[in-house]
Amino acid sequence: MNILVVEDNINLANSIKDLLVENKYSVETVYDGEDGLYYAKQDIYDLIIMDVMLPVHNGYQVVKQLRTEGITTPIIMLTAKSEIDDKITGLDSGADDYMTKPFSSKELLARIRALSRRKSEIINDVITLNDITLDLSTSELTCKDKKTTLSHTEYQLLLLLINNKNSTLSKEQLIAKIWGYDSSAVENNVEVYVSFLRKKLKFLKSNVSIRNIRKLGYRIEENDGQ
User: Fold this and answer.
1) Where does residue 196 rank: exposed (0-12), middle (13-18), buried (19+ CB within 10 A)?
2) SS3 call for 195
3) Sign of CA dihedral 53, 100, 66, 73
4) Which end of the chain is more exposed for a tag (fewer CB within 10 A), N or C?
5) pTM of the predicted model over 0.85
6) Which residues, listed in sequence order, are joined to residue 99 by a DSSP beta bridge?
7) 35, 65 in Cβ contact below 8 A?
8) Measured between alpha carbons, how far is residue 19 from residues 27, 123, 158 in Å?
């Protein structure tokens, strides 16, 4: 999952990033409303954590503009204000959830998981496609009586392909989603990790495969068992 953190307190932004990276999320941080709006409009993030009191544009303004432009990415708003009217303003602007500073790390992670399940309809922290099951808490991939553990990048790539199983994803989309908008990753990075995943699917003798659609990208496919 690729998360954008928009927070002008650099220490807090970095603390949130460290927490999320430790829990296997990909994270980018920006520190004002102008950059937050620009990055969020790229529509490459699975979730946005947005402070309210930001330089240039405040969080309410950014969220409202994103919703006006059709960006539906789930948003958790952060604020030092606990008044009911402020929460109502945030939710009415288009935010999906609202947390008051200071907050516990466990609660933030729980709310992220809740929004993730709501978006991708994942139940009980596992996702299944055909004969494979991906455990979202351990990164273990299981097929029948065999299992293997995925690296962080393999896990992100497979989850992204599964969640977009009816679509072909370009290498550019995969780079943006997995490595980040400002990443130095290149197409070869995608090719390498697709190769890693294919080897693990072959090891598991799965009916699931990753197909290269010439000049378009990759998509996950379900094959008939032989």
Assistant:
1) middle
2) helix
3) positive
4) C
5) no
6) 78
7) no
8) 10, 23, 22
Q: How crowded is the C-beta side of 31, counted as CA atoms within 13 Å?
A: 7
| Integer Cα distance of 121 and 29 in angstroms | 27
Q: Are 17 and 2 in contact (CB under 8 A)?
A: no
- If one counts every other C-beta atom within 10 angstroms of the C-beta of residue 94, the result is 18
pLDDT tens digits, residue range 67-124?
999 888 999 999 877 667 777 777 888 899 989 888 999 999 999 988 877 665 444 5
Single-letter residue type at 189: N
Distances from the Cα of 86 to the Cα of 60, 91, 115, 143, angstroms: 10, 9, 21, 48
What's the one-letter identity of residue 164?
N
Q: How many residues does the chain have?
A: 226
Residue 217 tokens read as: 């990208």
CA dist 46 and 129 (Å) reads 20
- Using alpha carbons, list the distances in angstroms from residue 40 to 43, 47, 79, 164: 6, 9, 19, 20
pLDDT per position as a tens digit, 134-173:
998 788 999 999 999 999 899 989 988 998 888 899 998 8
∠ CA 58-61-66 to the nearest 5 degrees? Answer: 125
